[in-house]
Amino acid sequence: MEDGGRRPPPPPPPTDLAAGQGGGGAAAAVVVVPIPPTNAPTGVESSPSIVRRYPTHPEPPSDDAALSAAGRRSYFNYNATDGSRFGPSTWGGVVAGDEYDYWGRTFLDDDDDDGSSSLENMCQVDGIARSPIDVCTRPEGGCEEFHEIRSRGGDYRIGDDALMTKQILPNKLRVVVSRRPDEVRMRCLAYAAMLANVTAAAAADAIDPDDELLCASEPPGADFANTQQKALDLLNIDIKFPSEHTVCGRKYDGEMQYYYFHPVRRTLLVVAWLLEATIDGSPANGHLQLLIDQFRDVYDANESACRGRDAEASATPGGVSPTSGRLLRVGRRLAMAASPSSTPNEQSDPSATSAPSESSSFPSVTSIPIATSSPSESSVPIPTSTPSESSGPTVDPGPWDPFHPDIQRTIHFWGYAGSLTEVPCTDAALWRIMDVPVRITIDQLDQMRNMLFNNRDPRRDCAYTSTHYEGSVARPINGSLPYYICTRDDYVSDDEREACGSRRGCAEPYGPRLGPYVEPIVHVTGPPSESPTSSTSPSLSPSGSPTVLPTTEFPTTSMIPSGSPTASLSQPIDNGDDDGPI
Question: Which of 206, 474, 531, 571 is 20 to 30 A removed from 361 (C-alpha atoms)?
Answer without folding.
Answer: 474
